[in-house]
């Protein structure tokens, strides 16, 4: 489990295809405190540490994960920056919302504009997921817990304050980018109960 509060920006150092995709990600984490098999959310995708060094870790990414995330849409290139978050520990502050790291689909940025110092982005969600996105509700986009401003059909808007742009990869966002979308767990269960007539 994660909170959607980004704690580091990683840099992709190596990508190999060998059955699954293997990626090496440079980071500022104290890797002595990261166990083999630990979960780290990389742009919102919960991945398992399979190798590590002093300032890097490696993950294997299955064909299933590639098909469901922006990793498969965009590919990861050496030098690419990624939002990172280590798994939640008992007693940690819940500053964002509960995020599983299980990406539901890929949304696309369809508009970007400046609003004072903030960046306003409009996203288009897959039709099957759009119904779970509500004004003033939470979504995780590339692993970042964000609040939805407005919803119009399959499109929804987000406002990014300067702090968020600085401490995440959102300062690099551009129209046309594919991003990992995880809908709020609570929204998923409310919709399921409504379908069941409860």
Describe the overall structure.
The chain is of the alpha+beta class. It has 5 helices and 12 strands. The chain has helices at 63-68, 70-74, 127-130, 162-167, 185-195, and strands at residues 8-18, 20-26, 39-42, 45-52, 56-61, 81-86, 105-115, 118-124, 138-141, 144-152, 155-160, 178-183. The strands form 2 sheets. A 6-stranded antiparallel β-barrel has the order 1-2-5-4-3-6. Strands 7-8-11-10-9-12 form a 6-stranded antiparallel barrel. Strand 9 (138-141) and strand 10 (144-152) form a beta hairpin. The longest helix is centred in the C-terminal third of the chain and has 11 residues, at 185-195. The protein is globular and about 45 Å long.
What's this entry about, in short?
This protein is 16% helix and 43% strand. The chain contains five helices and twelve strands.
Shape: globular
Q: Let me know the largest β-sheet.
A: 6 strands, antiparallel, barrel
With strands numbered from the N-terminus, the spatial order across the biggest sheet is: 1-2-5-4-3-6
Distance between the termini: 27 Å
Strand content is 35-45%
What's the helix-strand series? EEEEEHHEEEHEEEHEH
C-alpha Rg (nearest Å): 17 Å
Number of helices: 5
Helix fraction by DSSP (H/I, runs of at least 4): 10-25%
User: What structural class results from the helix and strand content?
Assistant: alpha+beta
Let me know the average pLDDT: 92
pLDDT under 50 segments (min length 5)?
none
Q: Write down how many β-strands occur, each being a DSSP E stretch of 2 or more residues.
A: 12
């Amino acid at each position: 489990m994660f909170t959607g509060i980004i704690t580091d920006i990683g840099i992709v150092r190596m990508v190999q295809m060998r059955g699954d995709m293997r990626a090496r990600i440079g980071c500022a984490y104290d890797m002595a405190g990261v166990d083999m098999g630990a979960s780290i959310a990389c742009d919102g995708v919960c991945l398992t540490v399979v190798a590590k060094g002093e300032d890097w870790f490696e993950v294997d990414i299955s064909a299933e994960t590639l098909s469901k995330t922006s990793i498969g849409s965009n590919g990861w290139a050496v030098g690419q920056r990624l939002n990172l978050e280590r798994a939640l520990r008992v007693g940690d502050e819940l500053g964002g919302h509960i995020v599983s790291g299980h990406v539901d689909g890929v949304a696309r940025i369809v508009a970007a504009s400046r609003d004072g110092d903030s960046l306003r982005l409009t996203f288009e969600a897959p039709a099957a997921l759009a119904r779970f996105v509500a004004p003033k509700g939470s979504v995780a986009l590339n692993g970042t817990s964000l609040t939805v401003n407005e919803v119009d059909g399959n499109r929804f808007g987000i406002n990014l304050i300067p702090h968020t742009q600085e401490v995440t990869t959102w300062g690099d966002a551009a129209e046309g980018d594919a991003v990992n979308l995880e809908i709020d767990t609570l929204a998923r269960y409310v919709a399921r109960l409504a379908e069941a007539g409860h």
